[in-house]
Amino acid sequence: MSAILTRLRLRRAGAEDKPAEPAPETAGPRTRFGAWLGRPMTSFHLIIAVAALLTTLGLTMVLSASGVYSYDQDGSPWVVFGKQVLWTVVGLFAFYLALRVPIQLMRTLAFSGFAITIVLLILVLIPGIGTVSNGSRGWFVVAGLSMQPSELAKIAFAIWGAHLLAARRMEQASLKEMLIPLVPAAFVALALIVAQPDLGQTVSLGIILLGLLWYAGLPLRVFVSSLFMVVVSAAVLAMAEGYRSARVQSWLNPAADAQGSGYQARQARFALANGGVFGDGLGQGAAKWNYLPNAHNDFIFAIIGEELGFIGAAGLLCLFGLFAYTGMRIARRSADPFLRLLTATATLWIMGQVFINVGYVVGLLPVTGLQLPLISAGGTSTATTLLMIGIMANAARHEPEAVAALRAGRDDRVNNLLRLPLPAPYVPSRTEALRDRLSRRGAERSGKPGKGKGTRPAKPAAKQASKPVRKQAADGRRKGKTAGGPVRAARHHGGGRTDRSRRRALEGQRYG
């Protein structure tokens, strides 16, 4: 009995001397958060969650900011909000279709879609077909609903440009071959939008063009020259018309015409200042009572700052920051060069609009009329933005790890709820794979000979090595021998099969 008690005392003393091991629950939240970020479907869940939050916040703020304007125009405070809800439903339907569309079908229809939008941009300029609003003939009005074809042109151009650059990059095309179809087509679309005129959509399409050129990996001098041309064109357009020139002058000198061209920007800053840190409360803002023109549209960020305060405005910017992170994460993890280029360009385009809109509301930029994506009242803008985010969510489902997880039967609640089809793994087409192999072989054959003695170029050596093999094989067939030529020939071709299988395996690892 005493021996047992002694052992128990020794064990207890040893346990007390040992340092306490951390419990599994004490593992830092950073570890759990990192594990969650490493899951295959994290990008897909993030992009859907951010889109849902932005859409909900946008509808709420449109309802709060548009009541007075709707009552003045139509006698009902629900008109603008009702149209926004209708276009949001259309955008959600487009979002769902973009989730289900096969990537190859999207690339096949890219040029046709862009050509159709060019036709729409021409039709909207014809009097009697296009409708003038705010000094711009850029809308189709059908049954009281307005549609802006320039919004569709931006998406069509982004998809076609990403398809074109991704395909030609794999074909090892020259710089001229990559720029000639893309840049002239962009200038045609830009000229038609300038003819409306619409400076905001022109700047937005210019951002898409610059994003495509930058993420395609074109030389820096090409990108800088393109950026210079876009900046010069924007400056010329800004000073060409009287009202745009007045906006620029009021931005440079806000006190010069405080009751004229600078009135809107001045009232927006007053609304932001009145909000303070915590705001006046949702629906309690004063600027929307005809003190701030277009409060529900271009200057809705000022209403957010007034009613939700600095906390609400900063939270909205954090949501857009999370959207930017998610978009670039999808682009970085995509194996398909088309999806990688399209997702990165779409992220830059949407964040560029956010920067411009918030910039002119707070006074950092001159007023251009670009809307805040998913937040401002604007039917076509909301629907097309949701369509683009749906394409980004589709790209998130086509990440190699996500494809492997879904095709392995791993359960995902969001995919089951939306009844989405299984994504197909990225496999380069036969033409792309053949051109890739031919380019590698050409690089190997054109390589410089080694420095050792007796080193010869690859092509003559292969020819000299093949002649004895063919001769020995022919001698073996004539003499009926099984050794020599036939055995060596089989060994030679077997080595070729091994190289081809190894190359195919490496291609599978490369493309997921």
What's the total number of strands?
3
Q: Give the neighbour order of strands across the main sheet.
A: 1-2-3
**Regions with pLDDT < 50 over 5+ consecutive residues?**
15-28, 448-474, 476-512
Strand content bin: under 5%
Mean pLDDT: 78
Output the structural class. Answer: mainly alpha
Helix content: over 70%
Helical stretch tally: 21
- Gyration radius, in Å: 31 Å
The outline comes out as: globular
Task: Walk me through the topology.
Elements: H1 2-17, H2 29-37, H3 42-74, H4 79-100, H5 103-108, H6 110-123, E1 131-133, E2 136-142, E3 145-147, H7 149-170, H8 175-179, H9 182-194, H10 199-215, H11 220-240, H12 242-252, H13 263-275, H14 300-333, H15 337-362, H16 379-397, H17 400-407, H18 413-418, H19 430-445, H20 458-479, H21 485-510
Antiparallel strand pairs: 1-2, 2-3
Task: Describe what this molecule looks like in 3D.
The structure is a single chain. This protein is mainly alpha-helical and 512 residues long. It has one domain (39-421). Helix content is 70%, strand content 3%. The chain contains 21 helices and 3 strands. The chain has helices spanning 2-17, 29-37, 42-74, 79-100, 103-108, 110-123, 149-170, 175-179, 182-194, 199-215, 220-240, 242-252, 263-275, 300-333, 337-362, 379-397, 400-407, 413-418, 430-445, 458-479, 485-510; strands at 131-133, 136-142, 145-147. A 3-stranded antiparallel β-sheet has the order 1-2-3, with no helix packed on it. Helix 9 packs antiparallel against helix 10, helix 11 (220-240) packs across helix 12 and helix 15 (337-362) runs antiparallel to helix 16 (379-397). It is globular, with a radius of gyration of 31 Å. It starts with a helix and ends with a helix.
